[in-house]
Every structure is written in C-alpha cells, then in structure tokens.
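Sequence, please.
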C-alpha cells in the first residue's frame, strides 16, 4: 500500500467514525535528535498538548500530540506535513 492509499483509507475511517471538530491524538517515533524533535513540534500550534518520552536506550523519542482538528482533511494534511521530516514514523 503506497502513501496515497494509506491517507485515503485513513481519511475514509476518520470521516466515517468521528464527529468534527474534536481533539485528535497524533503519535510519532523519531530518533532522539533535538533538531528533528523541534521540527515535529513546530508543525503544531501553541495550543497543542505535546508530550515526549525517551526510549530506554535513549536512541528514540516518542512524541504524542493532542490538538483540536477541524475535520479529517486537517488530520491528513498534518500527517503529510510531518511525513516530510526524514526518519519520522507515524503510528
């Protein structure tokens, strides 16, 4: 399944299963590099709640972001923005 298919499938699920606007939780895993962490965090508003947790070995960081999203399209656009950052894995 390519990225476009993944985004289309996610969009269908979000449109069908959720009422908008609502708080949406994003979760990412990224190498523990300050620059990449800052890039991910910069893609969200000041109102977003951002938590991060380092892996036991300290090589990776999981970033959880809760932010009010207006609709499924806004969620997909956010995932597309984040996907431009090298090494980010979205869950």
């Amino acid at each position: 399944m390519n990225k476009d298919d993944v985004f289309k499938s996610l969009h269908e699920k979000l449109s069908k299963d959720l009422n908008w606007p609502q708080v949406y939780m994003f979760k990412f895993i990224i190498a523990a590099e300050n620059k990449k962490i800052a890039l991910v965090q910069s893609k969200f508003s000041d109102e977003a709640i951002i938590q991060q947790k380092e892996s036991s070995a300290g090589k990776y960081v999981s970033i959880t972001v809760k932010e009010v999203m207006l609709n499924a399209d806004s969620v997909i656009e956010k995932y597309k923005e984040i996907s431009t950052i090298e090494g980010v894995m979205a869950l």
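The chain has a mean pLDDT of 92.
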